Amino acid sequence: MKDRLEQIKEEVRKQVEAAGTLDKLNEVRVNALGKKGALTEVLKGMKNVAAEERPKIGQMVNDTRTEIEAMLEETKKKMESAIREAKMKEEVIDVTLPARKNQVGHRHPNTIALEEVERIFVGMGYEVVEGPEVENDYYNFEALNIPRNHPTRDEQDTFYISEDIVLRTQTSPVQVREMEKGKLPIRMIAPGRVFRSDEVDATHSPSFHQIEGLVIDKNITFADLKGTLAEFARELFGEETKVKFRPHHFPFTEPSAEVDVTCFKCGGKGCRFCKGSGWIEILGCGMVHPRVLQMSGIDPKEYSGFAFGVGLERIALLKYEIDDMRLLYENDVRFLKQF
């Protein structure tokens, strides 16, 4: 029995010396001391040992177990120490190097401008409403008093998916959908992406964004429209900003107007930014055409309203004095990180 224990101890010593990793060392431990290990097998054979010899043999087995455990523990500590030293050498830090900067993203100029516009109108009691970008021809044109033979359809250079399905050229269809719900009064803005077949240049893009507003209620007049847009301009461009309304034509509003604001660079005196005029055009607006109200199920004799639309990119270009619309979409980090 003593020879067998010495043999087990010697085999374990050889296996420990050959074990190059902690996993291999653990395998040696299991093979020697586990439930099916060599030393356990010896203990199972104790029943065949004479009663008077069992204490002596048991002591020998315990001594052998203690020696094997000590051998395994010592080797484990050496391995762990070697691993720790290697890791420390590998992960050494040069404290003289500059720290790595954490590159944190931020909002796009368009998003900043949109949030500012939404803040202003929500503060005036408006609701932000969204709608589909792929739209029915009826909502995009006909319900806005633009029949199939209307020249405006040619001017907008529409992307047609089929004869009756288009990529929306404006966010006005969202207004029509809200009016059809019949929940009056309405105070809403509809921001979103729109599409027109334009060549890409400094002021045009086939895909851009609009924010259109609509108010429908009893006794709404052009004076309400002027007061709303004047307040909007002051909030967006500064308290000293003035507005000017110029007669215009839109099929879905009557009367209609283009709105200019005093140049926020020169205060209306005239400069390079406003091309010497002192005014900058920002949006179109007007009183909702009675026919548009009728087609949406609203009685124009009882209700009236106004609508307006502004290009989000135009707001961003003006507010941040950007001279090329393409910069907003080129994803140049050098440009975007300025905001």
From TrEMBL:
Compartments annotated for it: namely: Cytoplasm
Q: Name one GO cellular component term.
A: cytoplasm
**Reaction catalysis annotation:** tRNA(Phe) + L-phenylalanine + ATP = L-phenylalanyl-tRNA(Phe) + AMP + diphosphate + H(+)
Q: Which UniProt keywords apply?
A: Aminoacyl-tRNA synthetase, ATP-binding, Coiled coil, Cytoplasm, Ligase, Magnesium, Metal-binding, Nucleotide-binding, Protein biosynthesis
InterPro entries, alphabetized: aa-tRNA-synth_II (IPR006195), aa-tRNA-synth_II/BPL/LPL (IPR045864), Phe-tRNA-synth_IIc_asu (IPR004529), Phe-tRNA_ligase_II_N (IPR004188), Phe_tRNA_ligase_alpha1_bac (IPR022911), Phenylalanyl-tRNA_Synthase (IPR002319), tRNA-bd_arm (IPR010978)
- What protein name does the entry list? Phenylalanine--tRNA ligase alpha subunit
What's the EC number here? 6.1.1.20
Where does this protein have coiled-coil stretches? 65-92
Instruction: Read off the HAMAP family from this record.
Output: Phe_tRNA_synth_alpha1
Q: What class of enzyme is it?
A: ligase
- What's a Pfam family this protein contains? tRNA-synt_2d
